[in-house]
Design brief:
It contains 29 helices and 33 strands. It is α/β, with parallel strands linked by helices and 1003 residues long. The relative contact order is 0.13.
């Protein structure tokens, strides 16, 4: 009997609150389980380093930890050496004399960029000793310590990043630094070389500033031109008595290049973000111990805003007819430049100028372009000869003899370009043709002085096709002559062709041949799958948009590409206008199964067979073809709840499916190596994709992919959110460091090499971001509009090349909308093109996902297999057959790729290396629950004792009976609390993934 009822009630209310808190902690931990796994890891997990002799090892490491690190270190050095681009070298300024004295200027030298910010950031490791000063001294140079130490000790953040977009540049002027270090006399004894470092960074989530008005500069200045302080250094060093002025540009974004000639710069070396250890190579390159053989992957110009794409870039929001802006979710960009991105614009307009084409406008190539796409010098010279071209069974081969005619060893790059006919048909049907397009390339081996190598480059005749989105609505090849040339860069290649066509330019006709197409061709069937190819993006092309054409270049000079005002009054899609009618806003807002554009006839509404319990396991299907009927038998073993859980909780993992013994398969971010930003853990810090691309060496790309795969084997990682395949559409893209190039062919070839290598080590590579994710401004809410020719020839092309020429087995969709549909909810993109046309059987993963309900239905309908979320983003229901069957197909694709991965190491009908451990957070949670439960029971016993009425004296038998009753009460209390806790967790969890409790527990 209770004598102090008030105290008893109050204490039990407190205990109930504690119980609820424990319950909430369990629910939160369950919801964010995948994130907690990434932060805290596993207890007892195996890796290739501790698998036993009895374990099955399907992917074995070729390295121990020490040898792996040596191999990575060596590769980082070689990539940085080969990726350094020599842009200028007046009077053989470089290489520098042995033992030269060097004064290093600019804070950028002490803030050397190893990568950008965001998902590509990798753990720092022990690379901090690698500085510009250290690199120079290792190569034998003497560095002015006083000046170096001043810059080192007066660091100011250079800005940038994925959160604040602060692009301030805090460099000191010549007057400031000279006064601070004690006057010009401090330079005495270190005047052989003034080494001026120019640095520009980039970051996920924010594009670079087109105006510096909010970042310490003026409205007329941009982040990609030199600051007054940087200019003051260049303007002063020659008059201060420095014998040589060398500029090192450490950036992945093109910057304005007029300063080189304006301020008498003797030599300029471009070095992209190097990763942790690549900076070691800088001193050796400047000393001539290593010969730079990099070539630019972007066009470098004098006016950064001369790019055609720059007329439609940045922060543009839809407004209503009254001029009132809609909310943050309603932004747009229109790719009015069409195919004329980067060198495709500059070179094509140049050709039309040379040929005297009407409407070319006021255009002088030499006043626009400082260094063409593909440009790069060497410390030696090369001579090309014996150019030959042949065709057999649709494959064209180009052979060129490359001879080193200089005095030091070096490598060269043979770039092959083509020009297709620009016919009356093209002009009448809005088919645009660039003057030259890169179609293939190859790098020589290291050639000794006098050495010769025959370089062979091959490509398909079909690679020269164009897309006609208005009439044929498929790929075409015009009848006529296709010029094929080997060039040192895009401009040299075009001049070769123009010279061959009879125009007086500096070209080499012996480096050109032609391939003739006798009659107009339509290439309307995919060679790999046999699927018909036709328009899929009519509602993205946006009828009425004013696309740039070779027939009227002057429209760009008159700002004719900008859609800042006006309403397009045409039937059909009229969305590129700034003024958005309610229909467009409604379409953007609509998120459901039908909104994906999925045809109703492809839905499978048949009943689905699940949870059969026949004992089939995933491991038994290793090596089984994707279309084998045994996959359907395996799917019949899986519960709907298991399918749903894996689909909606796929961030940084693919979850366990116990019914078929599918192991967990952990994934990480990072094109620059394996990176987990939530835990701060990372493996080796590789160079950026941009620097890798500047090597023009797919063998180095393959080596990088292999070593990333080795990191994965030693770290229990299976999935890698990389490589990144988007283009440098404009110079201001915040993630240019993370992407290869402005050219789709170069990007696709290097992406293919990385994927092939990483997959050979058991990885799943999720190439990203699919697609048209070429700016970070408003990336979560922007509607991207483009015509289908540019979509297919430029923005889908790197992905298509990689998928069709490698074992790529994963892809990540992008944040942006494709037209008015979100990319992850676009059936045309993720299924009609990716799966049906290209035959992709890999996993489709979203970018970071936070949606739920019908918005997720839209993604599933479009073809998504996993959502990148560490929480739970459920479908609206799993009761509909069309949803269940789509989930089953997503499960099949995940399982098909996981069973061929390193996640199966150690499995012979048992747990794999990643799932063999217990998540640390589960152990922590269990300890918390046990302690909380014990504390509550103990507290309740004390409360009962304190509040009960004094009991009468009992006999021994009565006391024994009472103790027995108390034990039973305690046991019952424990059981009840445990049952309430477990059932509550399971109920709420089941509701999160759309199942009844019965289905959740029993299948």
């Amino acid at each position: 009997m209770i004598k102090n009822k008030k105290h008893f009630v109050v204490m039990n209310i407190i205990y109930a609150i504690i119980l609820v808190v424990v319950l909430i902690v369990n629910l939160i931990a369950n919801y964010w389980g995948q994130a907690l796994i990434q932060v805290f890891g596993y207890v007892g997990a195996k890796s290739v380093d501790n698998l036993t002799a009895g374990d099955s090892i399907y992917y074995a490491s070729a390295y121990n930890e020490e040898d792996l690190r040596k191999a990575q270190h060596d590769l980082a050095h070689r990539i940085a050496s080969e990726g350094s681009v020599l842009l200028r070298n007046e009077n053989s300024t470089l290489p520098l004399a042995s033992g030269a004295t060097v004064t290093v200027f600019n804070e950028a030298s002490t803030e050397w960029l190893i990568n950008g910010t965001g998902s590509s950031a990798v753990g720092t490791g022990d690379y901090v000793y690698v500085t510009v000063k250290w690199s120079l001294e290792q190569a034998g140079f003497q560095v002015n310590e006083t000046v170096w130490n001043w810059y080192r000790d007066n660091k100011i953040s250079r800005g940038g990043g994925s959160t604040n977009g602060d692009w301030s540049i805090n460099e000191a002027s010549w007057e400031t630094v000279t006064a601070a270090v004690g006057g010009e006399s401090v330079y005495d004894g270190y005047k052989d070389v003034a080494l001026v470092v120019i640095g520009r960074t980039g970051g996920e989530g924010s594009d670079l500033a087109t105006s510096m008005a909010k970042h310490g500069g003026t409205a007329e200045e941009s982040y990609l031109e030199l600051t007054p302080e940087e200019i003051s250094i260049l303007a002063a060093v020659k008059s201060a008595g420095f014998e040589k002025v060398v500029v090192v540009i450490n950036s992945a974004n093109p910057i304005e290049m007029g300063f080189l000639s304006e301020y008498n710069v003797d030599a300029c070396l471009w070095v992209g973000p190097t990763g942790a250890y690549g900076l070691e190579a800088l001193g050796h390159v400047l000393a001539g111990n290593e010969n730079p053989s990099g070539h630019m992957t972007d066009t470098l110009v004098y006016d950064i805003f001369s790019s055609a794409a720059m007329q439609n870039f940045g922060n543009t929001r839809y407004v209503n007819e009254s001029g009132v802006a809609y909310g943050n979710a309603y932004n747009y960009v229109t790719y009015n430049e069409g195919i004329y991105v980067g060198y495709r614009y500059y070179e094509t307009r140049y050709e039309d100028y040379v040929m005297g084409t009407a409407n070319v406008g006021d255009y002088v190539y030499g006043e626009e372009v400082a260094f063409p796409f593909g440009y790069g010098l060497s410390y030696t010279t090369f001579e090309w000869s014996n150019y030959q071209m042949s065709e057999s069974d649709g494959i064209i081969s180009v052979n060129v003899d490359v001879t080193n005619t200089g005095s030091v060893a070096g490598k060269d790059v043979v770039q092959v370009y083509f020009q297709s006919p620009y016919t009356d048909y093209d002009k009448a049907n809005a088919v645009e043709k660039a003057a030259v397009e890169l179609v293939a390339f190859a790098k020589t081996s290291q050639l000794a002085p006098g050495g010769t190598e025959t370089v062979t480059v091959t490509f398909s005749v079909a690679d020269m096709k164009a897309y006609d989105y208005t009439t044929a609505k498929t790929y075409i090849m015009d009848d006529g002559n296709y010029y094929i040339t080997a060039g040192t860069d895009s401009h040299n290649a075009l001049n070769n062709i123009l010279e061959t066509k009879g125009y007086s330019v500096e070209g080499t006709t012996s480096m050109v041949n032609t391939y003739t197409v006798d009659s107009f061709l339509t290439l309307n069937t995919d060679e790999a799958t046999g699927t018909a190819i036709t328009n899929q993006f009519d509602d993205v092309t946006a009828a009425g948009a004013n696309y740039l054409t070779r027939q009227n270049w002057a429209m760009m000079d008159n700002n004719g590409l900008s859609y800042s005002t006006g309403t397009v009054e045409v039937e059909g899609v009229t969305y590129p206008s700034r003024y958005a009618e309610s229909t467009l806003i409604a379409n953007i807002d609509t998120k459901n199964w039908e909104a994906s554009g999925r045809p109703a006839e492809v839905d499978n509404n048949n009943d689905i067979v699940v949870n059969q319990g026949k004992g089939l396991e995933l491991i038994t299907l290793m090596g089984v073809d994707y279309n084998d009927p045994r996959w359907e038998e395996l799917l019949e073993e899986v519960k709907i709840s298991e399918m749903h859980t894996m689909w909606n909780k796929g961030g940084y993992t693919t979850s366990v499916i116990e019914s078929i013994n599918k192991p967990i398969a952990a994934s990480t971010d990072g094109p620059a190596g394996l990176a987990m930003f939530m835990s701060g853990w990372g493996c080796f810090n590789y160079c950026t994709e941009y620097l890798l691309a500047c090597t023009w060496n797919d063998d180095l790309a393959y080596e990088m992919g292999e070593l990333v795969g080795e990191d994965a084997l030693h770290s229990n990682i299976v999935g890698w959110y990389a490589p990144a395949m988007n283009l440098h559409r404009t110079p201001f893209g915040g993630r240019c460091f993370e992407y290869f190039s402005e050219d789709p062919t170069l990007s696709g070839v290097l992406g293919s090499a990385i994927c092939d290598a990483a997959v050979s080590k058991g990885m799943i590579t999720y190439i990203k971001h699919f697609a048209l994710n070429d700016q970070d401004t408003n990336r979560n809410s922007i509607s991207t509009w483009a015509n289908e020719q540019s979509i297919r020839e430029l923005y889908l092309s790197p992905f298509e090349i990689t998928i069709k020429t490698s074992d790529c087995n994963g892809i990540m969709s992008s944040y942006n909308n494709i037209g008015y549909r979100t990319a992850k909810g676009c059936y045309a993109l993720l299924t009609a093109v990716l799966r049906n046309e290209w035959g992709f059987d890999g996993i489709v993963l979203t970018d970071l996902a936070t949606s739920s309900g019908e918005a997720n239905d839209m993604s599933l309908a479009a073809g998504v297999d996993l959502q990148l979320t560490t929480g739970i983003n459920s479908l609206s229901t799993t009761k509909e057959n069309r949803i269940r069957n789509a989930l089953a197909q997503a499960t099949k694709r995940v399982c098909y790729n996981v069973v061929s991965s390193s996640a199966m190491n150690g499995i012979v009908g048992g747990a794999g290396i990643v799932s063999s451990g217990t998540p640390t957070y589960i152990i922590m949670l269990a300890v918390l629950d046990v302690l909380a439960l014990a504390a509550l029971i103990f507290a309740e016993i004390l409360t009962l004792r304190k509040c009960r009425v004094e009991a009468p004296v009992l006999t021994d038998e009565q006391q024994k009976a009472r103790r027995k009753r108390n034990i039973i009460k305690i046991i019952v209390t424990i059981v009840i609390i445990a049952i309430v806790l477990v059932v509550a967790i399971m109920y709420i969890n089941s509701q999160m993934i759309g199942e009844s409790v019965f289905d959740f527990i029993f299948g």
